[in-house]
């Protein structure tokens, strides 16, 4: 601003009035300032301006597991749309299921003066955010609950969704139903395993621990368990979109395929042979609800923390309707 003022032959205060759109500056003087701004390539530092005025930035931080996963890409897009409608922006980072990386990203976002945080938890200890929450920074946990703090949370009904998958397979005559889930230390994986157990009980199907394998999973590990310990199963429930894709690849070309229901929809699932039956839900609403909650808090909502659970539904396409 000193450089602009010097080139335009005006005071720094006059430059400030022009860049902030204030009245009281002679049109000729304003033109000289704007010309100087163009010549020097001046860009207003919004962070510095907001810091000086104590204003909100409209920027929120979003911590995900892995932005490369289409599930999180869709969730991010929904958050961005809400932020844009509010005149804000989103900073995004992937934790890679590493609690230390999650905390590192949160610390980095806070140092950049984000107004709020959306976090897909990588761990179950979030006491490090207690002071931020107490001092008024809105924090919303997405897809998984927090540990050790009270905060707004937006979840999916994982238990009911997996139980629905088991009941559906049982209705088609299946009694030996296997489950491939993610690491049991992840809340969603643990809840989906609980739903699998409850679904077996609801459908009168024996729960066989030998037919359950929890991750993390790779393409090779999924292929190995499907060819080995789970080969006697007539039906399979997969715990997330990535595991489902690994299972579809492993089963390609097999003469006898188990009936398959996957948790989470994924791109091209309806075009495979057979098309993949899935437990689905509104991923965009998951992200949008979380973002709306953050901006509502920024707008002055001081009601107690809320817990929103989105419903799931079965989308039959063929792979889950194969009879035993």
Brief overview:
This protein is an alpha/beta fold and 324 residues long.
How is the topology of this model organized?
Blueprint: H1 2-8, H2 12-19, H3 27-40, H4 46-53, E1 59-64, H5 70-85, E2 89-94, H6 99-111, E3 116-119, H7 130-134, E4 139-142, E5 152-156, H8 158-171, E6 177-181, H9 187-203, E7 212-214, H10 219-227, E8 235-238, H11 241-251, E9 259-263, E10 277-280, H12 283-298, E11 307-310, E12 313-315
Parallel strand pairs: 1-2, 1-3, 3-4, 4-5, 5-11, 6-7, 6-8, 8-9, 9-10
Antiparallel strand pairs: 10-12
Helix pairs in contact: 1-3, 5-12, 8-9, 10-11
Question: Could you walk me through the main structural features you see in this protein, from its secondary elements to its overall organization?
Answer:
- The chain is of the alpha/beta class and 324 residues long.
- Helices cover 43% and strands 16% of the residues.
- It contains 12 helices and 12 strands.
- The protein has a 6-stranded parallel beta sheet, with helices on both faces. The chain has a 6-stranded mixed beta sheet with strand order 7-6-8-9-10-12.
- β1, α5 and β2 form a beta-alpha-beta unit.
- α10 crosses α11.
- It starts with a helix and ends in a 9-residue tail after the last strand.
- The model has no long low-confidence stretch (mean pLDDT 92).
